Amino acid sequence: MDLIINKSQDIGKKKHFEFVYNPPTDLLSFCCHVPTDQAKITGSYTLNDDDSISLYLIVNLPMRWFCDRCGDSFEKNYYFEYTDDILPEPSEDHYNYEDNILSLDHIVDEQIVLNIPNRVLCQPNCAGICPICGNNRNYNHCDCEQKQNNPKNPFAEIKDKLN
Ligand SMILES: [Zn+2]
Ligand SMILES: [Zn+2]
Fold first, then answer.
1. What is the pLDDT of residues 120-140, one digit of tens each?
2. Fewer CB within 10 A of the end CB, N or C, for the chain?
3. The overall pTM is greater than 0.85
């Protein structure tokens, strides 16, 4: 997905775009979350007087997520917005475009990776997995922790009798 920049005609005009995009299959292999469909990319750009381009991107990618607390999977769109000034020459802090072509693939791929949340929960108050019996506490109650806090130590009883 390349945007063709027409320097003589585009200055100051806000242009909109919309397309579907398949991120590389191994893009999110560093984490366990998986895209389940094509990303929908929408946004706009404006060519400025100094030949920089003000870019606004919205990425909407259907995903299957895995909860960091209970491990359950759930589907939800991965959505984020991104704005940047794209420069006509390479720079350390900004993306750039070359030969009147602004290629969005690299930007979208990199931002998909950078915007992945560090922590994903199936629900804000996910109760997680019981560390003792492995039960998913969102579905079933277990009283393991209660038992551990009030242990009935069989040796304590014997000790009582011996005294
Ligand atoms: Zn969960
Ligand atoms: Zn338990």
1. 999 999 999 999 999 999 999
2. C
3. no
